[in-house]
Each structure stands twice: as structure tokens, then as C-alpha cells.
Amino acid sequence: MSPTSERGAGPVDGHVRPHGVSDATVEALGTLSEALETVEQARGHLYAFHRLTGGADLTLGRAVEQLRAAGHGEQADLVEREIVGRNVLPGCWTFQVIEAYNATYYTPFTEVEHQVRQELVDGRSHLHEAEMKEARRTHGHPDHTARP
What we know:
The protein has 148 residues and is mainly alpha-helical. It has one domain (21-132). It is built from four helices and no strands. It is elongated and about 75 Å long.
């Protein structure tokens, strides 16, 4: 396949920088996107924390039942009273931690990132990566096409 007949000869318009946008702007937006990706990963870990902690609490319930069945009522009562259903932070279960994170940090972060991209590059995303792909791919190679 020759470069001129290549399927999707270049990136789609949404991945091409608008006229007049500087390299420095594209680089800065790439760094902003990198920060957002890190926040997304942190948020995923927060959800993992939520699920793991919730699962542990449910498992504690089984442990309490098993302790009682084994004749250890005092220890079962201790685990049930002190740990089962306990807050992970003062006044909060993990779902409340997630809600606070989303409201206080995640949502404002994504809104500001979107606003900056809207103001500087008509809302286009991943310009830095798209330009890196275009520079690094082998034009004309069937596994290096610009578009799906």
C-alpha cells in the first residue's frame, strides 16, 4: 500500500491542532492530559479501596458467625462491636470518601481541563499523542495506519 492510498492518510480533524496553536501550547495540554490520566488512575485506586474494604467488612461478618459457632462468643462480639461496619475515616464509609473526592477534586479537575482545552484548541483532546503517533508510525505500513 503506498502512502497516498493509505487508509486514513492522516489523523482525523479532532486530532489535528487548530491553525495558529503553538508547540508550547500542545505540549502544555499534553502535560495537563497526563495529570488528568494520573487522577483517573488514582480515582480507580480509590474505587478499588472501596470495594476491597467493603468486601473485608462482609468477610468479617462471616468471621463473627464462625467465631460464635466455634464457641467464642466474647471474641465474636468484640469483632462485631469494634470492627464490623466501622468508619474508615471519622464519620465516613468508603462510598462517602469517593463522593467527597469526586465533588471536591475530581469533578472540578475534569471541568477545568475541559474548559482549558475548549479555550485553547476548540476542545480537541490528545493532540500531543496524536502528533507523536503521526511522527512515529511507518507511513504506508498496514499496521501503522493513522485511523482505525
